[in-house]
Every structure is written in structure tokens, then in C-alpha cells.
């Protein structure tokens, strides 16, 4: 498979590297636009997916850099091209998973992907028109009606605009328009790393504090060539799994709430708090703020605290299983979950879904097992997949992952490696590129950093799993009932600010 | 004199008791979910609070927007006068009053739907369409159910056929009474936007049926809507209790009636706790089942 990619006519080699590794920028092979386009367009055919595709300036020339993930081979492949002129032929028509990346490129630079089927802003940055004002896909007809929801919602949730084209109660098409929370956070990393950069990384998506902070720290550590002590790696992994458990359990509760199944909603809500409190035991913050920093972690865990966490995990898991089984055993719950919001495997692959959404559609996409880094090189987390691709699969998969994660925590916390919790982080190496992937609870978090001649960030690219998955949600709603949209939405539970950055 | 006191007592119950049913339901749901829950009197507090507030009324609306909640409340009060509350007959009884009851409830719905459409909001239009559809399917069950009881007792007034003659129906034609009670319970859940048909506590506009129609109503208007909805629930609960507990005459009848209302509220709370909402496309089948139950009761009676 891999040899095929390299042997494609007119295709130069790619730079293969592993997760959490840095290489000199000069080693990234430069393609002409046609061969770069071919490389990215053929990525799915060769078993690769696009983890990131973004514009940057290399040697002061407008360039595109692609990070392809070869899940089978456990490698990340980098390639770049230089675009002369104001336009290049869009890749999206041949590989739809890059459609949002190309819209982003067009928005952030003056490059135009020619032939992109749906060119409109992603985040409406200042000077690019009024936020949310853009043409929407529209279906005309006497019986067709349009329902617009948001950006201000009835619940206390993040802002996003949803435009439904409906025929009676059936959704023909849903278009999601985000960008209301664009903070320019990628730009804030430039010239860094600053002292505040780790704090910024934690706020990329507040519910994925550990995930994004870990991805940021792995990037910095790779560029600096820092050695992180094993105990710190173990604590990061434990915090990441606690974050996963808390959010998955919260999602199960939210899914129950959406279908009016109140006992499960209430109990899962309470249990989410229990798991968050365990993260607070680790570092004093329920969301893990201030724990993960370049070089290691800031708080150690005493043996008796670890023991207490393990005990409380056992109790919490017992309650979680009881409550979850109440859901799986209630026919009216299953009637709502099953066959709602179906995303077939081939569509999930075409759209480049990651994380829970991908695994629920039978795609084996879990960075922890395909591109392990940090403590996951030492502990194996079996990835669960389900074939159905519906709301039930996304819900049940969360339950399976909660079990796996708690199992891992209960196994690892009593036998944490001894030693220091923080290592030295030297200066960053100049003109290097580092890619760091972390399997956050939503899915693959990808951070890519390029350093300049002084070893400062010249480009910092963040890809939150939500960036890949929002289109999956839009697809899942096709042909569904309007009244099932909130349920489909919860089953993905995507981040608005992680997308808006 | 006794008649006047009994009538005043009934008026007092009709005006004061309905929000308590909502309070009991909320408390039961909270307890089952492991929470303490709001005070039993919370619905009264809510209504009192809303009545003290100001309203913001969209300039795109017409008089219908204000008339909707008002007419719905008056219609609910008339409906309450038509059903036999407590012991003895209704405040207002006449031949064929059960048909009038169905129409009065229909009138309330018509104006609620009209007020919703009046706002021009796509949400409320959607809710209005849902409400109208489900009401069309619930109404046959309601009328057929009452028809079965009317036939069994040989009378055409609610006060008569839910009166003392009902006891003989339970011993003579128990099967059809059970069917009617089952059918009316489904109608009660559907008409009062309870789970599994609707979720009265959801904040998700896209999934709402009844709630979404009154999204634009606020302040006193919303208070009136809530009060009217409580009375409507009270009407249906009274029908169900009077049908299921055929005890008449004296204090025992009052006790059975009030106890029956409490049990009905608790039962609704339990049903809402142990079931999830139906997928909206399955609601018609649920209501059709109620129609079939009541239709079967009529067939059993008429054979």
C-alpha cells in the first residue's frame, strides 16, 4: 500500500515520521502543485487520511503542507508544495475530507482553491464580511420549508447556526455555520512558545483541556528534543483517560436527557461530577487546568491519593454500569437510539471522521493504538469499533470506552513509574516541523508546529476532532426527522470553540 | 343550601387544585431520578411570578396572539365545569355534554394553534402542525371512549354516565371499561404533552410539540398558558379517576376522588420516569392504539 503511494507517477516521496517527532523542515519533500494535489487526492485510496492540510510560509513563499496519517503503518507522512500565483486546483472534488481545510486555506491566505464545490468562510475572521452572513444551500419548492436555529440557543450551549431544509418533518439537508467563537488562538501561538502558550492550549476546547494541553506539550517537547520522565507520561495518560470517562459519561446523560429518559440523565450527570472530582484530586482543577506543562506535569500524586482514586473509580464505575444498563435494557430508549442518525462506513471514511464517530461507523481510528505516543507506547488500549454507525453505536461505544479507560486507570494508577514528574525543556530547534497527535475524548487532536530560524513558532496549526466531524453530523441528519436532530447532535457532541479556534 | 356549598367546593377545587397535580408529577420524577425536587407548590409560585411580570409582545403579531392563551384558559375552565368533580354531578350538565367537552377542548387547541401561527416563527409553525396532527389522532380515541361508557350506562351526559350507574358497568362490562381507561390514559398523556408523546421539561425547540407553540408568550400570558394547561390536565385526570373509581355518595366518594387524583399524578410521574419519548414518527401509532382500545370497547358494548 505504502510503496504504491510512493510509486505513483510523478509523485516524489513523503517524509515519514512518527507521532510526537520533529524533523528539519528541509526534509519535507517539495512537490509541484499537480503532484501534491495527486498525493492528497489519492490519500484515501492508499489507506491514508488527511490529519491536517494548511497554508504556511516556507522560505517566505506561500506553501501548503499536508499531514497524512497512515493508520495501518503507524506513520505520519508530510509533504508540501509551493503555490505560485493566486490559485491552485482544489483537491476537494477528488477527496471530500479536505473540503473544510481548503475553505480555511482560502480564508487565511489569498490562495483560492479553484473548483471547490462550496466555497464560503469557515470562521468569518475580521475583515471577511459579517459573521454568519453567507449564502446557504437552499432547496426550493412549495412544500419545502426552512428552519433556522441559533446562533443563540435555548440551552446554555455554545453558539452555532443550523439551517435545515425540511420537507414536512423530514430533513433534506442541514448546513452548519460556525465561527462565532473565533478567537485567533492559532495566531496567538506565533512567536512562542511563551509562558502563556500552555494555558492557551488548555483553552482551545475547555472540555478537552488535558487533550489539547498534551498535544501542545508533545509538540514543544518534540521540537526541543526534551525527555519527559515516565511518571509524568503516566500521569498525563491517567488525566487524559479521566477526561474521556467524565465526558463520555456526561454524554450518555445528555443523550438520555434528550429523549426524556430522566433517571439515566440525572444519574449520569451526577457520575460525570464524580469523575471530574477525580481529576481535581490529581491537580486541584476538575477540568485538569494547570496539570500538563512542557516537560511533564506540575502535580505529583501521592500513593495514598492514587489508592483513593482507584477506590472511588471502582464505585463510580459500578454506578455507571448500572445506569448504562438501565438505558440498554429499556426498549423505549433503544427505539430512539437505533437507526437514528446513520453514517455508513464509506461515508465516514470519505468525510474523514475521527474518534468516537469514526469508530461507531466501523473505522479503526484511534491514535492511542495506531500512532501511540507517550505512555501509550507502554500500555495497550484496545480500540472498540461498532458496525452500526447510528446514535446507538455512538452511545454504546462511549460506554465501552468508559469501561476500557477505567480498567486502564485502575491498573496503572497503583503502579505508576517512580521518578521525577518534570524534565528540562531546552530551546526549540530552529526550522523544524513537529506533528503531535493525541486521542482526545472526541477523537484525534492534531497539532503541527513549524519553527523559524530563531526556534520560535512560525506556524502553529491546531486541528480539533470537531473540525473533521461537523460535516459528519450534517450528513447523519439527512433524511432524519427534525425532532431527532438534537439527539444526533448529542451523539456527536462536537466542540464549537475547538472548531472556531 | 347543601347543593350550594357542594358547588362552591367544586369551584374552589377546579380553580385551586390543578397546579398541584403538576407539582406532584415534578416531585415524583425528581425522587425517581434521585433528586429532592422542587416544592410541591412550585407551579403556583411560577404562575404567581409570571403574572407579576411584564410581557414583550412581538409587533408582527395580531390580537390572536393574546386571545390564544385567554380563550384556552376559558375553554379549560368550561371543560372543568362539564366534568363531574368530586362526588355528584358536574357544575354544568346537559344531554350530550361529552360532545361539548370534546369541542370545547378543540376550541382551546384551535386558538392556541392560531396564536402560534400568528407569530410567523418557523418553530411555532412546526409545533402547531404537530399539535394539530396529534390532536386529530387523539380525538377519535377520546370520543369513542366516552361513547363506549355512554352506551354501557345508557345515558348521554357525563354526570350521569360517570355517576352511580357506572358501578354496574364495571361488574357487567368490566373489559370494555378497562379498555376505555387504557385509551383515556394515552389520550391524557398526549393531550397534556407528557412523555412519551412530548417532553414538558425539554429546552430543545426542535423536539417540542406543545411547548414550542408558546415560546413567544411570556409574563402573564405564559402564566395563563401554564394555568390553562394545568386545568386541562385536571380535566383529563378527573375523567380517568371518575371512570376508574366508581365510588359515589358521601365523604368516602370525595376521599376516593382526591386520592385518585393523587394516584393519577404519581402514575404520570412514574410513566414519565421509566419511559423515553417516542420517536415523533411513532406517536401516531401510539395514538392509533388508543383509538383501537376505545373502538374495541365500543364494539364490545354494541355486540
Give an account of the 3D structure.
The complex is a heterodimer of chains A (501) and B (303). By secondary structure, chain A is α+β, with helices and mostly antiparallel strands. Chain A folds into 2 domains: 2-114, Beta Polymerase, domain 2 (2-Layer Sandwich); 187-463, Cytochrome-c3 Hydrogenase, chain B. Helices cover 40% and strands 18% of the residues of chain A. Chain A has helices spanning 2-7, 33-41, 99-108, 185-189, 197-202, 209-224, 230-258, 262-283, 303-328, 331-337, 345-351, 355-360, 367-370, 391-412, 465-476, 485-492, 497-500; strands spanning 15-17, 21-24, 30-31, 48-58, 61-70, 75-82, 87-89, 112-114, 144-149, 161-167, 170-177, 292-293, 296-297, 432-439, 444-451, 457-463. The longest helix of chain A is centred in the middle third of the chain and has 29 residues, at 230-258. Chain B has one domain. Chain B contains 13 helices and no strands. The longest helix of chain B is centred in the middle third of the chain and has 32 residues, at 122-153. Chain B is globular. Chain B starts with a helix and ends with a helix. The model of chain B has no long low-confidence stretch (mean pLDDT 91). At the A-B interface, strand 9, helix 8, helix 10 and helix 16 of A face helix 6 and helix 12 of B.
CATH fold-level topology of the largest domain in chain A: Cytochrome-c3 Hydrogenase, chain B
**Rg of chain A:** 22 Å
The helical percent of chain A reads 25-40%
The domain tally of chain A reads: 2
Work out the helix count of chain A.
17
Mean model confidence by pLDDT of chain B: 91
> What characteristic shape of chain B results from the CA principal axes?
globular
Low-confidence stretches of chain A: 1-11
Strand content of chain B: under 5%
The CATH class of the largest domain in chain A turns out to be Mainly Alpha
Beginning-to-end CA distance, first to last residue of chain B: 44 Å
Which bin fits the share of residues in helices of chain B? over 70%
